[in-house]
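Sequence in, structure out.
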Amino acid sequence: MQVRDSVSLCFLILFYDQNATRCILLSGTPALSRPVELFSQIQAINPLLYPDLHEYALRYCAAHQSHWGWDYKGNSNLTELNLVLEHAILIRRLKSQVLTQLPPKQRKHVFLAVEAKDAHRLNSLSAKLSDSTLQSLTGGGGKGGASSSSVVATDNGDEAKPQSSRSLIMDLWTETAVAKVKLVTSN
């Protein structure tokens, strides 16, 4: 089953949660944003803890009425919310606590053969970057290489514009990712 967005995922979890005897939500990401973003997760685990979003938002989101309606983007009483979550819902484990229970990392090198047109574009960008780097090292690129640039033709071949080494690196990085998309998704 594949869910395309977080709202659909939330409804799917809540639907299954109504029929389940247990509910466990796992995350490797700490919730550091707005308290309102925790409400659906709290509802999934214990809907009786905070049955009403508006009351929850008044207490923990510094909810206030704006010109367009209620605004739940703030935060208030965070210490209290943290204590309630720690005692009623949250089981927090640090990486250092669970690292001994995990298998060692496995790293693999997967070599991908890119298509000829992509290889040509990557080689072209790589050569421009090498030229730009050489100019900066030999003093042809200005002070400390910060303004080193390479001339790049536009897609339609009309005009050329200078391009910095940093910009060339970002273009090469982006083009490399684009060139690998089909290969990575097929493996």
